[in-house]
Amino acid sequence: MIERELTVSNRLGLHARATAKLVQLLSGFKCSATLTAKGREINAKSIMGVMLLAAGQGTQLKLRVDGEDETAAADAVTALFERRFDEDS
Questions:
Q1: How do the domains of the chain map onto residue ranges?
Q2: SS3 category, 46
Q3: What is the residue-wise DSSP string for 22-84?
Q4: pTM, 2 dp
Q5: Which helix (H) or strand (E) segment is 6 a member of?
Q6: Taken in order 12, 14, 16, 18, is the CA torsion positive or negative?
Q7: Higher pLDDT, 73 or 88
Q8: Residue 80 in contact with residue 22, Cβ under 8 Å?
Q9: Which stretches make up the HPr domain (predicted)?
Q10: CATH architecture of 2-86
Q11: Is 15 a catalytic residue?
Q12: Across-strand partners of 65?
């Protein structure tokens, strides 16, 4: 199991497009993934779950991945957050 602390840094936060990118990215991995924020823990592979976090810019999240390719999944999600969901281009 891998845990990472992430910060939502894109201007619009985890809105629909960013959430869809996250869920689509994670769907390619053979592991479970959860996000925790504001006292809630959700399935990070669920669009509705991620949207319910209502994570705006600056929100601190904890990512937990567990499974066959957990390292690759955690690295990919970290990179997506660091690229601000590719919204700056």
A1: 2-86
A2: coil
A3: HHHHHHTSSEEEEEEETTEEEETT-HHHHHHT---TT-EEEEEEEETTHHHHHHHHHHHHHTG
A4: 0.94
A5: strand 2-7
A6: positive
A7: 73
A8: yes
A9: 1-88
A10: 2-Layer Sandwich (3.30)
A11: yes
A12: 2, 33
